[in-house]
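Checklist before submission:
- one chain only
- standard amino acids only
- sequence pasted in full

Submission:
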Amino acid sequence: MTPTHHPFPGGARFAFTVIDDTDVATVENVQPIYRLLESLGMRTTKTVWPLRCEEGSRNFSLSETLDDPQYHAFVVDLHARGFEIAFHGATMESSTRERTARALERFCRVFGAPPRVHANHSFNRDNLYWGVRRLDDPALRLLYRLAFRQAPDFYQGHCPGSPFWWGDLCSEQIEYVRNLTFSEINLLHVNPSMPYRDPGRPHVRWWFSATDAEDAEEFNHLLRPENQRRLEAEGGVCIIATHFGKGFSCAGKANSETRRLLELLAARNGWFPPVGHLLDWLRAQHGSDNLPADEWRRMQWRWARDLVARRFAASLRARRRPRRAQVGG
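Returned file contents:
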């Protein structure tokens, strides 16, 4: 598929931004990368958890939330500096409607308006249209159920009557929700109609896609110079979904390879807005809200293919790490 080329604001030849999920984020491990982005003229999107997790969390207990004063001050300052703050659910574990409503109220008090962008988190049961509910292709739905062995109704944020229901709050307050992620740096190759509406998932106003990079290693691989050149040459759009808390900073400094690659990217003729601004602009370019059926079908299969390939690559990297350590030692 040939991507749709748009003349980007200011004569830029491509658009690039990041949505940073707040998993394992602390001021210490994300501040250096945000200072780097700011110095390069890039403004990206950071998700937050407005509330601490009272019941505790096995996997995310070290993460900071807006209930941590230092983190609260850091995120408020980021917002004042032009970074977009987004929602990642109420907190790091599943939340009832009451807690989600409290979290949205807290977000609005802190930032002066509801979040414009939301990304579902991990296995939280309040996720909207998550798990097998992300998919419509019958074969893929079957494969998903076989692979993950998860009840079709496990995620219930979109289900009225469920204790986890908050779909009405989402449609009232939030404009954009992230759905499928891919390994392709230029999202116009996969989802040129982004952002799009989906009548079958009515509690989300607009959906968007992203390019997946779990941590600094995957981010750096994705942003290698040949991919940067292609993104610019194709007039592409890239929204990387990543976790700045995973290896992007060490001892108060940004990862040196990430710094090098972002400096190369910033020197190109690109537009570097937050996610919500980019999606607003893309919407204005479209003549229709619809996602064509053939595009949606290809997206689902590409998502599945990329997910399998990423997991296989991650397992290979994990197996190589001990060998490197032994050789180096």
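Reviewer check: The chain has one domain: 10-328.
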